[in-house]
């Protein structure tokens, strides 16, 4: 390729630590998973959520949770592969979530015994993308089923056994951030 002028703009290449734009292949790439990525926005996401709710009603929450859980397991597995220990994997995932546009995650300090969580972990999410796109004033309970599933799956990927995740505060119902509790299933 030396001596030729590329017909693409090299300055477009770097997006952030986890995402690149490939100007030769004309695609956005996720460097964590090594696959193609897309950027979407609130309009697409809120339309998707509303359409699912219109068709499935409350069942859409179960679908969201399970979808998130399966993706979360893959995410937890990958974070564990890329990190020296679980603590580092959690920091990695917090930053990946931030740069992916999901929101700002904070996980309370936790200790492990025999590779298992010693106690319940709290995860807060400021500016949660998924909550900001699903504000429905008539609801009174937390609504972030996809993210609950993702966090549950991530824990399973990281620790190798199922975990329950439930949301205790939610921006959809007026809380300043979303808050999730995570606990090992067998506890
Ligand atoms: Zn929420």
Major sheet description: 4 strands, antiparallel
- Euclidean distance between termini CA atoms: 59 Å
* CATH class label of the largest domain: Alpha Beta
- Average pLDDT: 90
* Order of SSEs: EEEEHHHEEEEHHEE
Percent of residues in beta strands?
15-25%
**CATH fold assignment of the largest domain:** Muramoyl-pentapeptide Carboxypeptidase, domain 2
Number of helices: 5
Radius of gyration over C-alpha positions, nearest whole angstrom: 18 Å
Q: Could you say which small molecules are bound to this protein?
A: zinc ion
Total discrete domains: 2
State the fourth-level CATH superfamily of the largest domain.
Trafficking protein particle complex subunit 3
Give the helix/strand layout.
Blueprint: E1 14-16, E2 19-22, E3 27-30, E4 35-37, H1 42-56, H2 59-81, H3 86-99, E5 104-107, E6 112-113, E7 116-117, E8 121-126, H4 129-132, H5 145-159, E9 163-169, E10 178-184
Antiparallel strand pairs: 1-2, 2-3, 3-4, 5-8, 6-7, 8-10, 9-10
Helix pairs in contact: 2-3, 2-5
The site of zinc ion has 10 residues, from loops.
Describe the model:
The chain is α+β, with helices and mostly antiparallel strands and 187 residues long. The chain has two domains: 1-39, no CATH class; 42-184, Trafficking protein particle complex subunit 3 (Muramoyl-pentapeptide Carboxypeptidase, domain 2, 2-Layer Sandwich). Helix content is 38%, strand content 22%. It contains five helices and ten strands. The strands form three sheets. Strands 1-2-3-4 form a four-stranded antiparallel sheet, with no helix packed on it. Strands 5-8-10-9 form a four-stranded antiparallel sheet. Strand 6 and strand 7 form a beta hairpin. It is globular and about 60 Å long. The protein starts with 13 loop residues before the first strand and ends with a strand. The mean pLDDT is 90. Zinc ion (ZN) is lined by residues 128, 131, 142-144, 167, 170-172, 178.
